[in-house]
Amino acid sequence: MMPLALIDNLDNLPNPFTRFQLIVDQLRPHIPQLDKTEYQQDLQLALCFIYSYNGSQATFNSYRREVERLLLWSWNMANCPSTQLRREQIEEFIHFCATPPETWIGTKNVARFKLQQGLRKPNNEWRPFVAHISKLEFKNGNTPKAKQHSFSQAAIRATFSILSSYYGFLMQEDAVEQNPVALIRQKSKFIKKEVSRKQVRRISNLQWDYVIETAEMLAEEDPVMHERTLFIMNALLGMYLRISELVADERSAPIMGDFIKDADGHWWFKVLSKGNKERLVTVSDDMLQALIRYRRFRDLADLPTIAESTPLIPKNRGQGAMTSSRQVRNIVQSCFDKAYVRMCEDGMKNDAEDLRVATVHWLRHTGISEDVKTRPKEHVREDAGHASMATTDKYIDTEYRERHASGRKKNLRPH
């Protein structure tokens, strides 16, 4: 049986604490289980749990994805509400997520619900799982296939974490007596222990030189379009920003007044980062000059005042701040693509290859990786907003350099 979406987007989801009956009335014609009270209660508990994360769109989406998958499996495969699942059934569900049937897998992201005659109805083309291919495969003309779906270690960890929180909530609501996820003792059969630190994905210094030169050339050729591009590239690498920290969303809208000068004349950039935590990022002399250039282009004073509410990254057209993270990705990708072509034209095709698969987040990794070579790692940790020093330590590759240097001259024919 093909599953239908149960939980709408945050913008279209009525408050389940006060308007749950409206949600049921819209879903009941399409979801036969909702004719039974026990399934209605199951859905209401799930909705109330997920809705409590409505302060962040990304967090809401993550929790919705995991809990909705559980409900769909429980209702359609285990034939019971999620409140009745036992430990061994949760294990079955994890195995199911690793290899779902092709009828549960989509090959593109589609809307969960459609508007028909003024009502929100589940979209028959939506699937709980989506197969993806790499950016390079997509560029080469390949398309995703359902059988290519894979369940990564990161996805397994997210499933365990979120479902454990969900059942913790159900216990608080007296809907279950035990947390079946917490009862799974041997999570090691699902989650592999990493024996060594993963290499941080970043672009090389040579690639960055070409990327930033490309942005500078674009800004010279078409400043109206690309002075913003140049500033975005510098900010992503120079201040290790995430996309979400550059664009406006329901939590915050970055403004020029977020650049702050302290009593010593030092400049900082105030960021609202993951977990709704504020942090201050050091603004280097080079980054300050990049800001001055950008402000001069926008006919602003060289440096902002603390009360200045000018959007940091404006829309292409109209008033207000840019709200589309996709637009930032497109800007960065265009720079990567043009830099790749320039490197190939200069006879450095092999050196350019990483730019074909690099993503926006690689710029953050690159900035941190470079800074941690010369700055105290405690300072880098604070600027990056890492929750623990262990995360910052991943960017220190001295150990890898020394290990490789000691091993590269090993003989295949020992003396």
UniProtKB/TrEMBL annotation:
Region feature Disordered, mapped onto this chain: 375-415
Domain of life: Bacteria
InterPro entries for the chain: DNA_brk_join_enz, Integrase-like_cat_sf, Integrase_catalytic, Integrase_recombinase_N, Tyrosine_recombinase_XerCD
SUPFAM superfamilies named in the record: DNA breaking-rejoining enzymes
Basic and acidic residues bias: start-end ranges: 375-385, 394-405
Subcellular location(s) of the protein: Cytoplasm
Residue ranges of every copy of the Tyr recombinase domain listed in the record: 201-409
Biased composition (Basic residues): 406-415
Keywords, in A-Z order: DNA integration, DNA recombination, DNA-binding
Keyword set includes DNA-binding: yes
PANTHER family reported in the protein's UniProt record: PHAGE INTEGRASE-RELATED (PTHR30349), TYROSINE RECOMBINASE XERC (PTHR30349:SF77)
Stated name of the protein: Site-specific integrase
